[in-house]
């Protein structure tokens, strides 16, 4: 029996097992089980790929070990399919295209909440597995995918054809370009690459119909990614929603951080041209530092607020850091610890139940005072108390481009665009 025949036969059982695992984990949305069972994931892996296992890239070579290659295709792990934008001499420094782990694919498709007859625009085709699942669910003529790398797009077309879904349109271009895709707007937009949380492509608002959904990973400059699920409103001029979970996707190529080489700012061996110095506080110096009184820049009025105080700003929830209050409170607590250490040693807390009760009662009293002060501040600023978890994050994406005949946006034409989450 040929290797291809063995792969096909084993792939059927592997796909069923993958669907069972995703279902048991509770990440598979309604209607997606049939797609995951029908679309062979191993068809979207090159003969040589690198399975990402516990932070390491493990090479999977189909010619050398076909069973390990096939088993890796149906594990809940991502697989690297391209290094260094396809530069064979790059030395495998950065992975630039991959097949996402099935759990992440299932979660994002569940957030997308597609319905039969809707059109979906995908940004970042990659090997094409995500587009294949969408095409199986909605039909190939209802899916268009945009990939910036021509070599990756060509591979995705071949993979889709091998899976019997060659009708999916795979375009080569910038996924943030409003001209890429259908003549009209899509009902859903999903991105499989992350954008900076401060630079989400606002062109996606023009590409998505009012009431449509955008599911696109975002991240800060140095990591910390999350996936917002945004619903378009205001005639396609804004979108808002909530973060549904964390993520770790490759950055859009237009937004990659190009750091200067280390030699540019640290010449020679460590520490370069910097000067090292050591400060000796002397005997007991650390105690003097802990007990040194520090006055906050703005003395607090009333009870100390926690380090993170909730402030609502429209549809955006902001976590504000009260640094001066945190520093003052910590220093005062440390001063008490230094002064009362002998007393605690003589009477351990664990042997004095009454003291435990007093500590618990005092903490509850302080917590009630903090909450009462927080509610008072909210009422003073006209902010209603939100239901659910107090720190549940939300996000907005707004287009600030003046529209023709819209005096509230500066008249006809002109203006720039900005995006903010």
From TrEMBL:
Q: Does the keyword Transcription apply?
A: no
Location in the cell reads: Cytoplasm
Q: Which SUPFAM superfamilies match?
A: S-adenosyl-L-methionine-dependent methyltransferases (SSF53335)
According to its UniProt record, where is this protein mainly located? cytoplasm
CDD domains assigned: AdoMet_MTases
Q: Is S-adenosyl-L-methionine among this UniProt entry's keywords?
A: yes
Keywords on this record? Cytoplasm, Methyltransferase, S-adenosyl-L-methionine, Transferase
Q: Where is the composition biased (Gly residues)?
A: 408-421
Report biased composition (Basic residues) as residue ranges.
285-298
InterPro entries documented for this protein? PCMT, SAM-dependent_MTases_sf
Q: What is its EC number?
A: 2.1.1.77
**Chain residue ranges for the region called Disordered:** 270-306, 370-421
Q: Matching Pfam families, A to Z?
A: PCMT
Report the enzyme's class at the first EC level: transferase
Domain of life per record: Bacteria
Family membership: Belongs to the methyltransferase superfamily. L-isoaspartyl/D-aspartyl protein methyltransferase family.
- PANTHER family (UniProt xref): PROTEIN-L-ISOASPARTATE O-METHYLTRANSFERASE (PTHR11579), PROTEIN-L-ISOASPARTATE(D-ASPARTATE) O-METHYLTRANSFERASE (PTHR11579:SF0)
Q: Tell me the protein's name.
A: Protein-L-isoaspartate O-methyltransferase
- Native source organism of the sequence: Kitasatospora nipponensis
């Amino acid at each position: 029996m040929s290797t291809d025949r063995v792969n096909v036969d084993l792939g059927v059982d592997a796909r069923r097992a993958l669907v069972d695992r995703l279902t048991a984990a509770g990440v598979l949305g309604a209607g997606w089980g049939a797609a995951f069972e029908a679309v062979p994931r191993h068809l979207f892996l090159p003969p040589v790929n690198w399975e990402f296992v516990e932070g390491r890239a493990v090479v999977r070579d189909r010619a050398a070990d076909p069973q390990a290659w096939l088993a890796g295709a149906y594990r809940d792990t991502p697989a690297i399919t391209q290094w260094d934008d396809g530069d064979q001499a790059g030395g495998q420094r950065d992975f630039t295209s991959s097949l996402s782990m099935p759990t992440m694919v299932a979660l994002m498709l569940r957030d997308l909440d597609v319905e039969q007859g809707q059109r979906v625009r995908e940004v970042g085709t990659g090997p094409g597995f995500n587009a294949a699942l969408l095409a199986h669910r909605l039909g190939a003529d209802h899916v268009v995918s945009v990939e910036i790398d021509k070599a990756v797009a060509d591979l995705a077309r071949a993979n889709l054809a091998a899976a019997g879904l060659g009708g999916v349109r795979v375009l080569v271009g910038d996924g943030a370009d409003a001209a890429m895709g259908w003549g009209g707007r899509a009902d859903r937009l999903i991105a499989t690459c992350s954008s900076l949380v401060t630079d989400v492509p606002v062109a996606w608002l023009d590409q998505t119909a009012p009431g449509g959904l955008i599911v696109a990973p975002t991240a800060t400059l140095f990591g910390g990614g999350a996936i917002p699920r945004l619903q378009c409103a205001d005639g396609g001029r804004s979108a808002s929603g909530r973060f549904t979970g964390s993520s770790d996707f490759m950055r859009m190529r237009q937004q990659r951080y190009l750091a200067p080489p280390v030699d540019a700012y640290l010449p020679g061996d460590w520490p370069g041209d910097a000067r090292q110095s050591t400060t000796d506080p002397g005997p007991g110096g650390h105690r003097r530092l802990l007990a040194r009184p520090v006055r906050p820049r703005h003395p607090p009025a009333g009870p100390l607020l926690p380090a993170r105080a909730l402030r609502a700003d429209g549809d955006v929830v902001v976590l504000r850091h009260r640094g001066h209050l945190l520093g003052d409170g910590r220093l005062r607590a440390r001063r008490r610890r230094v002064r009362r250490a002998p007393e605690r040693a003589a009477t351990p807390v664990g042997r004095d139940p009454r003291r435990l009760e007093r500590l618990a009662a005092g903490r509850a009293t302080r917590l009630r005072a903090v909450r009462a002060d927080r509610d008072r501040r909210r009422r003073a600023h006209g902010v209603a108390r939100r239901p659910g978890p107090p720190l549940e994050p939300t996000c907005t994406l707004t287009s600030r481009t003046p529209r023709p005949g819209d005096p509230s946006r500066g008249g006809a034409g002109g203006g720039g665009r900005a995006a903010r989450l």
